[in-house]
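Agenda item 2: cytidine-5'-monophosphate complex prediction
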Amino acid sequence: MSYVVIIPAAGSGKRMNAGKNKLFLSVQEVPIIIHTLRVFDSDETCKGIYLTINPAERDIFQELLTEYKIQKVKRLIPGGKERQDSVYEAVKVIEEEGIVLVHDGARPFIRTNTIRELVEKAAEKKAAVVAVPVKDTVKRVENFQVAETLDRSSLWAAQTPQAFHISLLKRAHEMAERDQFLGTDDTSLVERLGIPVAIIEGEYDNIKLTTQEDLYFAEAIYLKRERRKEEDHV
Ligand code: C5P
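Presented output:
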């Protein structure tokens, strides 16, 4: 089943402390955003990529897309102040009907199989998210004191991609704007409409590159995957 994808890439990456958009940093000598784009560019069921960017970085993005021969980017859309604003700008210009994915530019390790499974689930249920069970015990903290220990058996960490019927994602963003609701992901905008969101179990490898040490993990994940590919070809 086909889909389009919104990739927000307009962040400043403050927590990475790189002095530039973290998506331009390289893993194995290829910029992070190119790793992410390649996954969708090479997936034949992906019908188009809507990339939200900081307008001041338009030329850099254009050059990267040309250099790495990325074919499916339909639009470079100026992003907004928060991630949610950036996604909304893309939602407003989408022309297609059907299924839309939202996937962070900073998650380069998503696998095509997971995308396929997610798209099927969203087609059936209207909204679905990739998530993994949390490994740590999670505490709610107030003033550096434990207020509560949460029941881990029901806790999952939400990742991206998150997938929706396009009309539902549009409505969720419109309602969030109307109510001035700011969420940290897109399914939270759908959840508040009372619409159930299905879960697909993803992989712990699908990390979001956020802080400096994530670059070290990213190199390791990349090398592991390259080794697997070589073993598969023996
Ligand atoms: O900062 P964080 O890694 O959580 O952001 C997730 C994704 O959202 C990144 O790919 C980032 O570039 C993007 N983003 C955006 N517009 C913003 C903030 C973040 O497109 N205003």
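Discussion summary: Helices lie at 32-41, 58-67, 83-93, 112-125, 166-179, 187-191, 212-233.
Owner for follow-up: CH.
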